[in-house]
Specification:
alpha+beta; FAD/NAD(P)-binding domain; D-Amino Acid Oxidase, Chain A, domain 2; eight-stranded mixed sheet; elongated; binds flavin-adenine dinucleotide; FAD-dep_OxRdtase; membrane; FAD/NAD-bd_sf; transmembrane helix
């Protein structure tokens, strides 16, 4: 165990190598005040870069995403990043049309008769209550959306064109961010952070209080900050002024324990945040997704769907025997076509399996993936006759505080400890704004590019 103290270098440690941690590393190196001779930046990632949701998400970017205090900035930064670093080529950045479609899918029996991706269960989950599609019938379907069977369409509503919606390949984007950050001196360590260690801070004249703004979303009185942390070296409350001193991690390869100094620690551990910071109200919601190489190339669309599939009576060979198979409940897979002749499909979330120890331990329920494949095959022959290339699952980080959709970006009330987490279903969209704002907090002492008082973690912790 080594702890270096007494240097005047600023030691910035980012915990978590998902899109938030990696994009934050990138923006720290792009800040005018960054000087590698004075600042060291280390990203500590437990398993592998982008091994969680950041490598398995859809990648839709939309001006109407939330929260609206960072979305316009982030949407614009995505555009700038793509322009500056060849995003089109390097991470599949492109403008994409987006729509909400309602369809009656073909039943399992018919798909089986037709062949292709058909022999899977048609598991039916409660459809997400999205916007009701107002435009009726096949005539509403855009002409270039020719890979969806028009006769099955009940309605289609446009949700975005080239000015409102775009996309990236999240894995490629995250890898590009960390590579660009490494080129500017950022160090990546593959190891699991075991503890954030603290020292007594010198008394501060400024009381540690959250900004006095609308607190209506708080579910109750704020919990005593950090008082229940069980990671040994850490115990703090609002009344005791502490500051970050070092971070202890276990190296993934050697299993050795190391402690590195830290003057600023940025917690970007997504759904794992509360394992390191128990009073952070962040949990994980598992979601499955699949990727498919379509039978022939498809136009650029991101589709929210509501598909009603005719009921299928149970049969002896049927995979499930629950009532969900014989009810015609709508399902709502999201379908994104990607530039490299790939279609990505994700389904609804489930709370069946708790967030596991690491991204490498995420349980993939093949049946749920097969359901997704059958659902989207039921409205597209390009998909039905395509080839499934990946079945996967991951956890999105959600904030379990009523009335607050997240994320939490900013100071925690402990000197030197910042948080960038809880991005729910818009972390890909909001990563650049998060990274830029955190870099401003680190080097300028406050967020400059957007007013993010509403996202201040101290309002909740
Ligand atoms: C199915 C699905 C589709 C989605 N589609 C979209 C979309 O289209 N558009 C959009 O904007 N968003 C989308 N999202 C949301 C987006 O994926 C997430 O908000 C985002 O990836 C969160 O990033 P993160 O870096 O906070 O978390 P993660 O990607 O989970 O990264 C956290 C990292 O921290 C590491 N870590 C955890 N604990 C430790 C520790 N103790 N020590 C070291 N490292 C640790 C983990 O290993 C992990 O790599 C989607 C999410 C899902 C699940």
């Amino acid at each position: 165990m080594t702890v270096m103290e007494g240097t005047d270098r600023q030691e910035i440690v980012i915990i978590g190598g998902g899109i938030i941690g990696c994009t934050t590393a990138y923006y720290l190196t792009r800040h005018p005040a960054y000087d590698p001779s004075k600042h060291s930046i280390t990203v500590i990632e437990a398993t592998r870069i982008a091994g969680g949701a950041s490598g398995k998400a859809g990648g839709l970017l939309a001006v109407w995403a939330y929260p609206n205090n960072i979305v316009p900035l982030s949407f614009k930064l995505h555009q700038d990043l793509a322009q500056e670093h060849g995003g089109e080529e390097n991470w599949g950045y492109r403008k994409v049309s987006c729509g909400n479609l309602e369809a009656t899918g073909r039943g399992r029996n018919e798909l089986e008769r037709l062949g292709g991706q058909a022999g899977m269960s048609l598991g039916k989950r409660s459809g997400e209550k999205g916007r009701k599609v107002t435009n009726g019938g096949r005539s509403a379907l855009p002409k270039d959306l020719d890979w969806i069977l028009p006769d099955l369409i009940k309605g289609y509503e446009k949700m975005g064109g080239s000015k409102e919606t775009a996309q990236v390949h999240p894995y490629q984007f995250t890898m590009a961010m960390i590579r660009l950050a490494e080129e500017q001196g950022v160090k990546v360590i593959i190891g699991s952070v075991q503890a954030i260690n603290y020292a007594e801070a010198s008394p501060s004249p400024t009381p540690i209080t959250p900004p006095a703004e609308d607190n209506s979303y708080l579910s109750g009185p704020p919990s005593p900050a950090l008082s229940s942390v069980s990671l040994g070296s850490f115990s703090s409350g609002r009344s005791t002024r502490r500051k970050v001193k070092s971070v202890t991690y276990k190296d993934r390869e050697t299993e050795e324990i190391h402690t590195i100094p830290s003057t600023t620690t940025i917690l970007a551990a997504g759904p794992w945040t509360s394992k390191l910071y128990p009073s952070a109200p962040i949990s994980g919601l598992r979601a499955h997704s699949v990727t498919i190489t379509p039978a022939s190339p498809v136009s650029a669309y991101a589709l929210f769907t509501e598909i009603t599939i005719p009921p299928t009576p149970p049969s002896p060979s049927y995979r499930y025997h629950s009532s969900r198979n014989i009810q015609a409940e709508p399902v709502s897979p999201e379908i994104y076509s990607r530039p490299n002749n790939e279609i990505y499909v994700c389904g609804e979330g489930d709370m069946e399996v708790e967030v596991p120890e690491t991204t490498a331990d995420v349980e993939v329920d093949e049946n749920r993936c097969d359901d997704l494949i059958a659902q989207v095959s039921s409205i597209s022959d390009h998909i039905r006759l395509g080839r499934v290339t990946r079945k996967q699952a991951c956890y999105l980080p959600i904030l379990s505080v009523g009335g607050h959709g997240g994320p939490l970006i900013g100071e925690t009330g402990t000197e030197g400890l910042l948080m960038a987490t809880g991005h729910s279903c818009w972390g890909i969209n909001n990563a650049p704004a998060t990274g830029k704002l955190i870099s401003e907090m680190v080097f300028d002492g406050k967020a400059i590019s957007a007013d993010i008082g509403q996202l201040d973690p101290r309002r909740i912790l």
